[in-house]
Amino acid sequence: MQNKKNVKVNEKIDEEILDEETADFNDCEVEENQETVNQESNTEEAESKELEQLKTKMLRLQADFLNYKNRTEKEKLNTYGNAVSDVLCELLPIVDNFERALEVEAPTKEVETFKDGMKMIETQLKNALSKRGLKEIEALGAKCDPNYHQGIAFDSESEEEEDTITEVFQKGYLVKEKVLRPSVVKIVRK
Amino acid sequence: MSKIIGIDLGTTNSCVAVMEAGESTVITNVEGKRTTPSIVAFAKDGERLVGETAKRQAVTNPDKTIASIKRHMGSSFKVNIESKDYTPQDISAFVLQKLKHDAESYLGETVTDAVITVPAYFTDSQRQATKDAGKIAGLNVKRIINEPTAAALAYGIDKEDEDQTIMVFDLGGGTFDVSILEIGNGVFEVKATSGNNLLGGDDFDKVILDYIAEEFKKENGVDLRDDKMSLQRIKEAAENAKKELSSAMTTNINLPFITATAEGPKHLNMDLSRAKFDELTATLVQNTIDPVKTAMKDAKISADEIDKVLLVGGSTRIPAVQDAVKRLTGKAPHKGINPDECVALGAAIQGGVLTGEFGSDVLLVDVTPLTLGIETMGSVMTPIIQKNTRIPTKGSQIFSTAQDNQPSVDIHVLQGERQMANDNISLGNFQLTGIVPAQRGVPQIEVAFDIDANGIVNVSAKDLGTGKEQKITITASTNLSKEEIDKKVKEAEQFAEEDKQKKEEIETRNNADSMVYQTEKTLNELGDKVSAEEKASVQAKVDELKKTIEANDVAAMKTKTEEITTEFNTLAQKLYQQQPNPGAEAGQAGADATGQNANPDDNVVDADYEVVDEDK
Question: How high is the ipTM of this complex?
C-alpha cells in the first residue's frame, strides 16, 4: 500500500516536472524522488503529530482559561463579603470585652451611670455589626455540634442530656450562614 | 484530561495545590482556608469529621479524635473506634478524601490523580502506606516525592544549570526536618536527613503562654491556666504575639477582664519584646541547630559546600530561627515562597511535569513590553498594539492618504510610549505604492501588526482598493534590557502632559488643515449653487484659517475651525440636497485612530507621506 502511495506521489511530482519541460521517466530519478518523498512524508508525519499536540495544548489551555474565568468571577462576587467577614471577625474580641465589662457590678451610682453610657455604646456597636449580617450562634441549651460549637469543659452535675451546652464561655458568631467563630462552651458529660 | 493535584500530607496540617497554565496555585478548602488540619474524628452519631471541625471537638471527644496519624504510617498501629479497626492508611485516606473533595469543588471538575509528598527519611513501607492511603481515598497516586525535593521544585532550583547542594530546613507545626540534597541534571539525591519529630511551632506558642501566665501570677496571685476560658484566651494571645514578633520588634498583649477575683475583675496588659521572645525560645532554637550539624556531618559537607538553604514550614518565619540558620550555614536562606505552602506547590509542579503541562515546553506567556504603532500625519505616533499585550497577538487599523492623488504611503514602524514619533524607537520603514489616484482621505489602507509567539513582528499594509500589499518583518523589536524598558515607560509618564499637549496641537492643526481642504472642495463642487456673497464670506474665513495654520497659532486655529464648521455644515447640506457626494462620504468612513478629534467630519487619520513621493 505504501509503495503504491509513493509511486502515485512520484507520478504527480514527475507530472509537474513534465509540465515545465519534457523530462524522461528516469529510474534514478524515481529512486531519488522516492527517498525525498519518504523524507517528506516523515517530516509530514512529524509535523502533523506536532500539529495534533499543539491543537490539544491549545484546547486544554482554552478549557483552563474558561474554568479559571468562571472561578475568578465567583471569587470576585465573594471578595466583598469576605473582606467584611474579616473585619467583623477582628471586632469580635471587642464585643466580648464590652460584655465582660458590663457584667461587673457597679458599686456606686456614678459608676452605674457610667455603666449605662457604656451599655449604650455597646448597643451601638452591636447594631452596626448586625447591620452587616453578624448573628449570634445559638448555643445555650442546644446540643453541642462541632460545626458551630467548641467544647472545652465538662459539666458533670447537670441533669440535662449528654452533650447539652450548659454554659457559654465565649459567644460564637455567623455571617450569612458561615461560621466566623465557634461558640466556646461547657457541655454535659456524666 | 484531569489535572494532577499536589498534596502535602502533613503531620499537623495538609495543603493542596494544582498547576494552571504553567503556574502552581494553592487550592482553598470549602471553609475558605488554604490549609486543612490533618485531624479525623468520629462524632457520637457516627458522623465522620475531618479538618477544622474535627479539631474543634478534640477536647470533648478525645477518644475518637485522631491527630498526627502520620507518625504511625507504615506501622501496624491500629485505631479502634466503635469496635472497628482502622489502619493509619485508612485514617490518612479520610484526610485525603476531604482534600480531594475540596479540590473538586474548587476546580469544578473531577480529580483522580495526585502527587503526594513524604518526608525524605520515610522507608519503603511508609511510602507504600501513603500510596495505599491515596488509593483508598479514590486517588491514583502518580508519584510519591520527598518533601525537600518538592520544596526545591517550588523554588525552581531544578531549573538551574549547575549541580547544587542544598539544605532544606523544615520547621512545621509539630515536627522538624532538615535534609541535604544534591541536584544535578534534574536528578535529586538525598545525601542526609536529620531532625526532631517532636519540635514545632506549637512549642514556641507554649513558651510564650507560660511566660504570660507566670508574669500574671506574680502580680495577681492567680494562675490563668487553671481556668479553661482564660487559658483559651492566653493561648490565642500567645500565638498572635509570636506571629506579630516576626515582623514587629515589640507587641502588646491586651486582655481586659481576663479573670475575676475577690477584689474585682483583673486585666492583663503587657508588652513583649522580640528580645525577650528570643531569650525565652533560645533553647528551642538551639534544638534545631544540633540536627543541622548532624546532617552536615552525615553528608560529609561543610557549610561552604552548601549552595542554597530553603525554608519550609510556618515557624521558619521566626527571625531567631532564620538568624540561627544563617549563622550556621553562612548563607541567607531563600524565603520567597510561602513556607506553609511550598511543599504542596512543588508537588503540583511535579504533577504538571507528569501531565506534560510543565517541563521542557513550558507555556510561559510573553508580552510585548512597549507599545507598537506607526507614524501618522503631523509626526505623531498612532499606537496599534498596546504595551504589555500578551503575545502572540494581532492588531490592525485602517488609514488613508494625506494628500490628493497621493500615490504611495510610507509606513514607519515605531515602538515606545511617547506621543511624538521622533521620541520613540524606529523599528523599520517600508512603502506601499500603486495607490490609485484619489482625493485625500479616500483610499483605505489597512495596516496590520502580527506578533508571533517568539516576539517577531510582522507589519503589513494593504490597499483595500487594489488588494496590493507590502510587508516587513522585524526580528529584534525587543532588544532592550528590562532596565531600559522601565526607563522608557517612566519617561513617557514624565512627559505625558507635554506629549499630550503636543499631540493636541497637532490634532488641532490637522483638523484645521482638513477643514480648509473640505470647505474649499465643497465650495468648488457647489459652483454657482452658492451665492457670491456666501462664497466670499466663507472663503474669507478659510483664508483666515490658513493664516492661523501658517502662524501655527493653535488657539486661533481652534476658534477659526469652529467658526467655519457651522458655515461648512450649511454648505454641505446644500450640496447633499443636490446630489450625494461619494467622495465626502468615503472620506468620513476612514477609521478614527486617536478618538480625540473634535471635528466629526474629519475622522480619517492621514498616513504620513514624504515630500519625496510627491516629486516622483
Answer: 0.70
